[in-house]
Amino acid sequence: MITNGFLFISLLLAISAVLVVAGHSGKFRVFKYVPGFVFLYIVAALLNTVGLFDHDSIDGVGDGLQDALLPAMILLLLFKCDVRQIIRLGPKLLLTFVVTAASIMLGFIVAYLIVHSALAPESWKALGALNASWTGGSANMVAVQDILEAPEDVFGYVLIVDTVLYSFWLLLIFSSVAVSDKFNRWTKADTSKFDFGGRVTGEEEKPMTLSSIIGLLGFALLVSALAAKAGEMLPEVGTVINASAWTILIVSILGLVIGSTRWGRAAGSSQLATIMLYLIIGIIASGSDFTSLAEAPIYLVAGVIVLLVHIVIMLVYAKLTKTELFSIAVASTANIGGIASAPVVAGAFNRALVPVGVLFALIGTFSGTFLGLLGAQMMSGIG
């Protein structure tokens, strides 16, 4: 069992290195269909499932590193973004987010209709809290649980559902990157709006230097630390806008500003951000435990029904509106995952569109509590 935080991080980085080298070698065709970070997610989750990680000893290191790297990664990814191009994508992105959130809330109602007879009398309160989490984030979930006074034992079950299904959903979303072209052909989506005229790829052809790498690394980590400090000093707004939300917002705005200047053309930002992306995914995956599937089975069934309804509605929506997979995947992740994972998924699809992930996540952060309460109210009338 690994009890040393440094060994834990080193192992994740070593696995990432093997996967990146294997993927770039061209010898393994599987990497053409499944991105390397999907394998990292699976390997890290399996290692945790077999009990390799002592979370009492390493969680502090992993969580601390993730808190430090996430703002830095978002900042670096935004260096190659042109906010004017994001604005030109139009209001359809917001419509996609609204449909996504509505499909999840409808999924909870359908799931409760099907399985409510096998659930505890006040299970609708806990499911309402889970609804808040899957349309916003953990802060929304806690807020709804507190407002509705959901029973602690039932709330514990939905926490398991949240952890297990979120892990599998994130794995599925990451895997979908490899089939995005096929999906877009199926929906006949117009992806030309995502072609930013070489704004990104052209800059990556510039050679990296020691000064560019160390300058970017030092700057990104310093900004991450200062943004986190500033986030702690800013006032919380309700129960959903907290220090973490402020931190992400600060680095996002700064990254967009830098991206419109010559400083955004510094070579190496993409490579550094990718390294951070792998580490963050590894840390997230190391908290997944597949053995939890054996607990609270009826609530897991309810959660699976929610996701199935969500998938069906989004597939129909994508086909009817000719929507590309990127928008669907990031909107879904922003709802079910939240502000920590939406920008990561957006970066996996197209790093020039990380602001879309941040935007979606912030909208979910604002609306999740209200959607959870609304869903709970609807479920309470079923019986």
UniProtKB/TrEMBL annotation:
<keyword id="KW-0472">Membrane</keyword>
<feature type="transmembrane region" description="Helical">
    <location>
        <begin position="93"/>
        <end position="115"/>
    </location>
</feature>
<feature type="transmembrane region" description="Helical">
    <location>
        <begin position="325"/>
        <end position="346"/>
    </location>
</feature>
<feature type="transmembrane region" description="Helical">
    <location>
        <begin position="240"/>
        <end position="260"/>
    </location>
</feature>
<dbReference type="InterPro" id="IPR008537">
    <property type="entry name" value="DUF819"/>
</dbReference>
<feature type="transmembrane region" description="Helical">
    <location>
        <begin position="6"/>
        <end position="23"/>
    </location>
</feature>
<dbReference type="Pfam" id="PF05684">
    <property type="entry name" value="DUF819"/>
</dbReference>
<feature type="transmembrane region" description="Helical">
    <location>
        <begin position="154"/>
        <end position="179"/>
    </location>
</feature>
<feature type="transmembrane region" description="Helical">
    <location>
        <begin position="65"/>
        <end position="81"/>
    </location>
</feature>
<protein>
    <submittedName>
        <fullName>DUF819 domain-containing protein</fullName>
    </submittedName>
</protein>
<feature type="transmembrane region" description="Helical">
    <location>
        <begin position="272"/>
        <end position="290"/>
    </location>
</feature>
<keyword id="KW-1133">Transmembrane helix</keyword>
<feature type="transmembrane region" description="Helical">
    <location>
        <begin position="208"/>
        <end position="228"/>
    </location>
</feature>
<feature type="transmembrane region" description="Helical">
    <location>
        <begin position="30"/>
        <end position="53"/>
    </location>
</feature>
<feature type="transmembrane region" description="Helical">
    <location>
        <begin position="352"/>
        <end position="374"/>
    </location>
</feature>
<keyword id="KW-0812">Transmembrane</keyword>
<feature type="transmembrane region" description="Helical">
    <location>
        <begin position="296"/>
        <end position="318"/>
    </location>
</feature>
